[in-house]
Write a structure and sequence with these properties.
The radius of gyration is 23 Å and the shape is elongated. The protein has helices at residues 3-29, 62-70, 113-148; strands at residues 45-53, 75-84, 90-93, 105-108. It is α+β, with helices and mostly antiparallel strands. Keywords: Bacterial flagellum, Cell projection, Cilium, Flagellum.
Length: 149
């Protein structure tokens, strides 16, 4: 595997984890929102990832073909989508709330704050690991250039 492939793959991981962090943060920010533009409570979201074959942007010619052959078994990651949680809302009795129904029940988002915090920490650690991979590949590339010079 060439070192540029390592940088590309880690870059895809960085992007995926940044999306994961943004979605978990959005869920926390909206954990108490009872009225969205659509009219109902906020629905928490989650990121769905998928593995995709790594396809280097290889130049034409023998080198490009060799590079494609060498990397044909690698897999990258991409965001397949962001999905809403289909679980029912949490019902809380609060007759003074502006969004309470006739029985005093308020439908609240089903956001598990602890789960979102754990997801934020996990995304942060995965992001750091991918950033370290980029730095390592960069250092290896620079060392290879020193040897070649």
């Amino acid at each position: 595997m060439n070192l540029f492939a390592a940088i590309d793959l880690a870059g895809a991981g960085l992007s995926a984890q940044r999306t994961r962090l943004n979605v978990a943060t959005m869920n926390l920010a909206n954990a108490q929102v009872t009225r969205t533009v659509d009219g109902g409570p906020y629905r928490p979201r989650s990121v769905v990832f998928r593995a995709v074959p790594y396809a280097p942007d290889a130049a034409a010619g023998a080198f490009g073909r060799a590079l494609a052959d060498a990397t044909d078994r690698l897999q990258s990651v991409e965001v397949a989508g962001i999905v809403e949680d289909p679980n029912p809302f949490v019902e809380v009795y609060d007759p003074d709330h502006p969004d309470a129904d006739a029985d005093g029940i308020v439908r609240m988002p089903n956001v598990d704050v602890l789960e979102q915090m754990v997801d934020i920490m996990a995304a942060s650690r995965a992001y750091e690991a991918n950033a370290t991979a980029v730095e390592t590949a960069k250092a290896m590339t620079l060392k290879a250039l020193e040897i070649a010079a």
